[in-house]
Amino acid sequence: MVLWLAVGSVVLFSIFLWKYPTFFRDARIGFINYKVRVGVDLIQLIKGNFTLVDQWEITSAKHKDRPCIVFEGKTLTFGQVESRINQFSHWALDSGFIKGDVIALFLPNCPDFFALWMGFAKVGVECAFLNNNIRGVSLLHGIKTCKARAVIVNHELAEFLQPIQSELCELLISSFTIGGDDSNSIKPETRSACAPPAIFRKNVTYLSPLYYIFTSGTTGLPKAAIMKHKKSMWVAYGYAALFRFTKEDRLYITLPMYHSAASTVGFGIMITTGCAVILRKKFSTTRFWQDVAEENVTVFQYVGELCRYLCNTPTSPFQQQHKLRLAFGNGLRPDVWDIFREKFNIPQIGEFYASTEGNVIFVNRHNVRHSVGFAPCVLPFLHCARIIRYNIETDQVYTDANGYCQEAAADEVGLLIGKMSARYPFDGYVGDKSITNKKILRNVFSGGDSWFNTGDLFKEDQYRNMYFIDRIGDTFRWKGENVATTEVAQAISSFQQVEEVNAYGVQIPGHDGRAGMVALVCRSSSALDLEALYDHICVRLPAYARPLFIRIQEIIETTGTFKHIKTILSREGFDPSKISSPLYFCDPSIGNYVRLDNILYEKIIRGQVKL
Prior knowledge:
This protein is α/β, with parallel strands linked by helices. The chain has three domains: 35-282, Rossmann fold, CATH 3.40.50; 382-471, Luciferase, Domain 3 (Luciferase, domain 3); 475-605, ANL, C-terminal domain (GMP Synthetase, Chain A, domain 3).
């Protein structure tokens, strides 16, 4: 009898594995995910209001003599960074800032970026991370949106605050510099290096905001996504566990700290594991592999464009002389993936998918080519993500006779959504609630359910490995940055010779994402002053958001609800042999727009023109 039960069990389990061949994969990652999320909640029950600040204090005390941040040839230990953090905490208290106040940071990558937001968090002050490439209206909008009481700017960027200084004064928003010698310069070294009393963050819980990160969307100007302590801890613990980080790792970060990839993920991993961060002000193709080799880097973070840049640079004598075990990030294109891995001998590529404000995360822990991760086949309800059928041409989801959405089949491209719940929250954006509501789909599979709309097209294979296809809506991604087409259109619409603007992204062979392009309707038949338009754009938009191509039209087509039709224009691209209307290209060699003809088009397609 026992023998028959054993044989029966083996047969049943074999049938189960035949039907669900990914069982062990799903169970292993499911256990890690469960351990992280339950572990974070359990800490709250045991210790009460345990935040990322508390975790930092534990880690920094435990590893006070170990390297924490390596920057521009100088190594700072955890103890030294902790002292700097405490000095900024006391500066904030002495300057009259209290719990709930917001201070905007307008800084390049540097150790003080981390020290400032962690120092302020120690006394309950929240930070807003401003993209240091934005200027003018966008910069002022960011500061106002998060209701900042002050903005701190690196002395090298101080000049870019001058055009909006009068508006800041009217709004009673103070500005301070760091690293300079002017009267408004912060001098943290004059403050105490002792930790401020925990009473100053007494009412800060793990559900309180930690900082705000700006993300582009269909509303045009940047939106401030709320990053709470709880989510930041989930992310930090989760990535550290999934990619097996230890205190012996040395993590190389060249991504901007105002993005969640570097701050929430990269520095979060450092906070939770005690590993060292090798920080650079910005990415450099010429220094990259030398840094990796000389600094004994074991892991580095990437975005897809960074990997393509590296693949296109001349061979470096250091590119095989490394101790890397992992490169992890997002946006690595399939046509770059294999070249990148083989050329540089990367043992593991940890591609992942996530967004700052979203509730959907995929992680490719198993080196599956071209995949961003997976959703479990076994017990799929343990993951919030679904792919629903979507009509790209009409920008609408498919629904059944009852008005509910339909799940996409295997290998069918559809819209990725994430079910909202206490376990998978969408905390939304600061300010107008309608902006948050626009990202929520309701009554998707049943009455009353709510799902986060990622705005991204995905497909999955039979094993539920996930593959990113493209981004929909009024955004495009270029040079590793998300760009809102409405922000581009608004900036160009203020040019006096332009009557109407339709902005969109177009694909260029050999390049990640989509380059910016605009279709313009001019106010008169007189020749468009291209030089003046170029100067106008440069003042109002960061380099990555400036359109590379301009198309002149007599009329811009719209839908029945007066929305600009972008899909056809995007599909037509910038080929002068297919477009009869005038086309122009932003030539970086002369700093102006020039007529785009067939010869120039072929050079761009062949990669003979620097973009």
